[in-house]
Every structure is written in C-alpha cells, then in structure tokens.
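Exam review. A common question shows you a sequence with its structure tokens and asks you to describe the fold in words. Practice with the pair below. Do the first one on your own.
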Amino acid sequence: METTIYSSEKHPQVAVVEVHGNVECGECGTDRLCGLLHNLVDSGDRWLVVDLTKAGDIDERALAEMLAVIGRLRLREGDMILVAQPGDLPRKMRTMGFHELTVVLDDVEMAVEQAALKAGAKREQ
C-alpha cells in the first residue's frame, strides 16, 4: 500500500489522502493507513477526502477504523468524504453503515468541493 497526502490548491483547508494498492490487516496496511488518518486529525486537519479509487481490497478493520476517524472529525466539527469507484468497495462500505455517516462519491474534485463547502458553512456559524 502506498499513500499520497496533499492539500487542494483551490481549497487548502481540505487534505486529500490517496491510497494505492491493497490495505491488508497489519502494520503495512490497516495500521499504517489508520495511523496516518489519526495523525492528520491530531495535527489539526478537520476536512479530509480519502481517495480509494486506486485502492485494491481494503480490510474491514481499516474501514471500521475510518468510521472512528469520522467520529473524531465530527467532534472537531470536521468531516471525511470518501471517494471510490462503483463496485465491491462501496457495497462493503454500505454494509458497514458508511452511508449513514458520510458521503461516498466517485469523483475526487467533487468530494473536495463538497468538503470545502461544509468547511465554509462551519466557519460562518
């Protein structure tokens, strides 16, 4: 598994995490990805887009931990939006209840725009 993290040029308040390859159980997969997401929250990031369009199989523990990260972000008045291609992964996420907590889109730019809109709305409150 490889990851790339960057801030959107148009919306620097949104951090994008790209995941490449399989996210398997253990140090090189689940622990690494989830540790990275928790570190982003710990360092003050509140608006995350996780791009799973280049990911292969994702272990259910990693998905469960992503739900925990969403909870932490919500406590900080932030959110995480996931991006995945139609198919098995979105079905697995739906089974786990992601659709009740966040949005799963199929386009990164749309996800960044939506996160930026939410960030702007929270800032105005």
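Now try the second one, then compare your answer with the model answer below.
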Amino acid sequence: MSQNTRRILVFSTNYLPYIGGAELALKEIMERLSGIQFDVITSRLDKSLSEKETFQNINLYRVGSSWFLKNIFLPKNFYPLSAFAKAIGLARKNKYSAMLALQASQGAGAAWLFKFLHPKMPFILNIQEGKNLGQQGFLINFFRKLILKKADIITVISSYLRDYVSKINSKAKLFVIPNGVNLEKFKNLEHKTNNQDKTIITVSRLVEKNGVEDLIDAFHILNTKYNIQNTRLMIIGDGPLKEALKIKILNLKLESKVTLLGSIANEDLPKYLTQADVFARPSLSEGLGTAFLEAMAAGLPVVGTARGGIVDFLKDKETGLVCEAENPDDLAQKLSLILSNSNLYESIVKNARKLIEEKYDWNIITKQYEEIINSYTRI
C-alpha cells in the first residue's frame, strides 16, 4: 500500500456473512472508496469463518471465540475487549488516519476504549439506529451517550437521528448522510404484465416496530370494506413475530392471499419488487427506511408513516402516501387510494424515482463520505 494512502480502522460488531442494512451500507461505502484501505474488526460468530480475509481494499479481522460468543449470556458484550486488543496490535503495525465505528453498540465500545490510547486519532461514528431511542433501557442509553460524547465526527442517516445526537454531543462535527441505493440493480427492470392482480409488498424484519401486524389488519380491511379486486400481500423478511403472523393470517382467513416469503438474498430483491404494485410499511419507528428507497427506485409507490427518518423522503401525495401509525383503517384507505387512482400513482412513481436519483444514489453519498475523510483526517 502506498504511503500516500489513508488507512482507517473500522469497528463493526457484525460483518460478512452476518449483515443487515447498516452493515450492507458500510460495505457499499468502503468498496466504493477504493483509494482508502480499511481494516475491519468484527466478531467471529462461527468457527468455520477465517480469522482474516481480504476483499479488495478491505482487510477483515474476526475476533473472539465463536463458542464463547454464542453460548455465554450477553453474547456480543464481550466483543469490545477482544476487538480493543486486536486494535492495539494492528496499530503497532500500521499508521491509521482515523477510526470508524458502525453504530453506538459493542463495536463502538471497542472504539471508545481505543480512543483513550489514541486521543489525537479522529473518531468517526456512524449512527443508523432505527428503534425508538427514547423508549430504550437506562443502560443502553447510558452507554450510547458515553460513546456519542467521545466521537469527533458523527454521521447520521436522517434528520431524526441528527436531532437526537445534537442534544448529546454539540461539539462533534455532525453530518446527515443517508444510506443509498445501488441504482445499477434497478436498471431496465421488467414489471409484471398481469394487471388484474393488485399486489402489495413489504420488506421488513418481523418485529413490532415495523408494524407488519397493522399491515395485515389493513389488508383485511382493504378486502372487506373497499372494492379492490384480486388483492395479494407479499411479506419478505423474518423475525420473532413470524409464528404470530401466521396465526393472524389464518384467523383472518387470508392464507390464500397473504404469502410469508421469509428472508431473500439482497440481489434477488428487484425481481420481487417488480411483481408488486405498491410497497407499504407502517413503521412505529425508523432510522431511515432503506427498504422504502429501494421500492421507490424499483418504480413502486410507497405508503408509510411520518415516523423517524421516513419524513426526510416521504412527502404526502408527492413522493408517496403518508398513513397514521397504529391505524390499520387509515392505512387501508391510503392503499385503496393509490391502487384506484392511476394519475396519482404515476405522479408519485415519477417524483420518487427523481428523488432517488438526485439524493440517494450510492455514488453521490460516497462522495460525501470521501469529502469528510479528506477534510478531517491526515495520511
């Protein structure tokens, strides 16, 4: 590696192959910043995984015993110490321009410790939390605030998170940079040709905050109250509510209309989106809502709540439809509206796609990260 290349030490509790939306975003950013070397320290959750792997400009280091992490209570809470020890070893061999932590969680805990040894090294913290931050427990909030106060540069994915962070650390350089969409995945898509069926789709982890139960209730109302024929609901995702949702679907006699598809590979998402007419997710809280952005990129109108980061991109009757949270009747009414009004449908699809291309393209977002790194770190 050239001596003129920046090298950044990254702390991420999870990474390949155990990745969610935040880790996918980190991967997109690092791979696109090919002129920077990234050394990523993550937890080794499976003994079959190598302790070190290299992907282009990314060195991946897995630390901790997989048995220890999986079988002892509070599994990942021991990761900060092993990651901290690994970081000390790497810092003896390499000169780092900055440290970067994904989320104010266990990985950032290791960065917090490392910052005490290297107080002059810029600490960049990326915040993507989607839960209702005000309703989390005392200990979680206590440790999150400790980490936030230690960071020099904080990037958040929505104005909702900006407002939260600014109350805790007013001294840090704070930037709102959303997650993005890989527009190459959504080029030249062939949409469904069967215009008789009206298909609603959601992509969501099956947890309470994503409002999937409300969506099923709204779908039931759509079928019983509104004159929308041949409706279907596709639910993509997995999670602890799966069995409860199966029971709800049976109780409402919707088993012939609602399909629980489980988790799918991220690269397969576009082909599922093109089989649908509208995307809906009545979230109770949301850090940003990348699933909405991907649906918009695929040419679907979206229906969502004005919660968390969703308000940054969802403008009622302009880039989508806004429904009330925890109100299946209102959601059903909005679904009926978008499925029966072709002019509104086409207008929303056009406006949403334009917004994605102008603001949420990963190439645009990566340049914003590159500017921050170049401005606040040294080679």
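Model answer, second protein: The longest helix spans residues 342-359. The two ends are 12 Å apart (CA to CA). Full marks require stating both points clearly.
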